[in-house]
Amino acid sequence: MWRLRLLKLLVIGWTFLILFWLASLQVLHRKAPRIKFISRVDLPAKRGEIFDRNGKPLAINVPGLMVYQIADSDSVNPKDVLDSLELKVLPKLPEGKLAYLIGYGLPYSAKSDLNLVKGLKIEDFWSRKLIDPAYRSLVGIVGMEGHGLSGVEYALDSLILAGKHGYRYAYRTADGRLMFGVDLPQNPPVDGGDIWLTIDADIQAFCYEQLKMWVESHDALHGMVIVADPNTGELLAVVNYPDNGDYAVTDPYEPGSTFKIVAHSYAYEHKIIHPEDSIDTGEGFIDFKKHRIRDVHPLGKITWRDALVHSSNVATSKLALRLGAHALVDQALKFGFLAPTGVILSGESYSPPRDSIAGWDSVTVAGFSIGQGLLVNGIQMVMAYSAIANGGYLLMPKLIRAYEKDGKIVKTPSRIVVRKVLNRSTDSLLTEILVEVVDSGTGRLARIPNVKVAGKTGTAQKFDKKTGRYSWTRVTGSFIGFFPADEPKYIVYVVIDEPHKGSSYGGYIAAPLFRKIALWLLTRETFRM
Questions:
Q1: pLDDT tens per residue across span 220-245
Q2: Highest mean pLDDT among 152-156, 184-188, 522-526
Q3: Is the pLDDT of residue 396 over 90?
Q4: How far apart are the first and last CA of the chain?
Q5: Taking the domain 34-60+131-197, which CATH number applies?
Q6: Quick check: helix, strand or coil at residue 344?
Q7: What phi, psi does 461 have (nearest 5°)?
């Protein structure tokens, strides 16, 4: 019996000795880890942030998470995990990847919970946050790879915002650990620069809410509002609704009667007409071979001043036939139509000058003068009317007020003059007539008590390819105006596309919204004094 006990004691003793020896190998006599290979580790740059003219954040970086499911792991159902944390599950990547991306831009606060789940790989990541949906179409969005996909985020991605990613090499051990060494090459990241826009966040937000209600209540296809300083070209608000596109830049349209300033300004500038001279518009229409241009109401014999005040298509068409195609196109180019504005946003669209202008027939010339047969964008129209408001100078639209470069703040020029468009006398006369448009003409619903408003209505029928004619059921209504007319501080442009409730005439669908925005701006100015 004692022999059996002795044998047990010997076995237990030898077991302890072996365990002690193994432990000493692992702990007391540990050797340096065996290096398997050298790996490159990317060091992402932090994206520059976007602010309004007063320093209010529009798009910022917030810490977030990217979550992967290990491809060969069956220990977790990712949908159940993320659903329980109220996080969005993304579609799986193609088969064969080492890990499936299942969550992107997830809140950093979820990290501790996710770390408890086996089979998930979690990476820290800077997520882009848009402060308000009012900025979506202008500021744009950033994709999963950290690059801008639209708006300012896209236009200034590589120039300022994105920065430059860095890298660092590290030793990777056999067990997968990384060991950084000073002897290995490294290149630190260069963070992107911040940007300060000319946009006023408060104006942008107010216009967005008002436009949203207006488009929805009139069952319109979409709408656009642009607010600018006509003296500097600074864009104070560029609003689209729905906000899934930048209609102000990328979606050109036939402008209709707001384009009539081209023909009338040329005629006044070259002394071809006088505002008190008369023009006979007959029974309110003018016929061409297969086309008729008509006024909303017959106006008979009127002055040239009233031709613009009451927006006569017939009078403007007759004037265009006297001027000719070359004069009209030249004047349109002087006002900044038919050419890029220079706005920093990508995808600007418009009508370039047509080839063989000399071959234009009468209906083409007449249609061009009343805003048919050409496409403009909202920025072009605002800059053209700003030229009337500021004394006759076409300015480059300004969207960037300052930006960060090499750690320093760089301010952009206060304004850039493209060219002189009108002499002072013509400019003053046009302003006077545009004030009458609001006081007694087609823009009466834009009137503001005790404030002179100069403006013009636009009602543009859309061309129907099926019938070969312009439609009266698909119409774009607009109004553009600046105020106070004597010393303009603001220019506001409202466009409502295809309203299906209420009138589609610019004086009825767009002028009242202009007035609402103008009153808010004036009230805001009063309280800020």
A1: 999 999 999 999 999 999 999 998 87
A2: 152-156
A3: yes
A4: 107
A5: 3.90.1310.10
A6: coil
A7: -70, 145
Residues 6+ apart with CB under 8 A from 122: 65, 66, 67, 68, 111, 114, 115
Mean pLDDT of 363-383: 96
Any bridge partners for residue 44, and if so which? none
CB-count burial class (<10 Å; 0-12, 13-18, 19+) for 299: buried
Instruction: Tell me how far apart the alpha carbons of residues 432 and 128 are, in angstroms, rounded to a whole number.
Output: 48
Taking CA atoms, 74 is separated from 17, 52, 71, 254, 277, in Å, by: 40, 48, 8, 58, 87
Close Cβ partners of 159 (under 8 Å, ≥ 6 residues apart)? none
Q: Does domain 201-528 have CATH number 1.20.272.10?
A: no
Query: How far apart, in whole angstroms, are the C-alpha atoms of residue 376 and residue 255?
Result: 7
- The residue count of the chain comes to 529
CA distance to 13, 16, 17, 478, 483, per residue, from 3 (Å): 15, 20, 21, 109, 113
* Location of each CATH 3.90.1310.10 domain in the chain: 34-60+131-197
**What one-character DSSP code corresponds to residue 140?**
-
Please tell me the predicted confidence (pLDDT) of residue 42: 72
233 three-class SS: coil
Q: What is the pLDDT of residues 241-269, one digit of tens each?
A: 998 878 899 999 999 999 999 999 999 99
Q: Which two tokens stand for residue 457?
A: 């209505």
Determine contact, residues 207/224, Cβ cutoff 8 Å: no
CA distance 183 to 376: 60
* 3-state class (DSSP) for residue 338: coil
H helices of 164-312, in order, are 201-217, 247-250, 261-269, 304-309
Helix, strand, coil shares of the chain, percent, nearest 5, are 35, 30, 35
Domain(s) labelled CATH 3.40.710.10 in the chain stretch across: 201-528
In angstroms, the CA 393 to CA 389 distance is 9
Give the span between the Cα atoms of 79 and 62, in whole angstroms: 24
Tokens representing residue 236 in the block:
């104070």
What is the pLDDT, as a whole number, of residue 207? 98
Return d(Cα 481, Cα 494) in angstroms, integer: 9
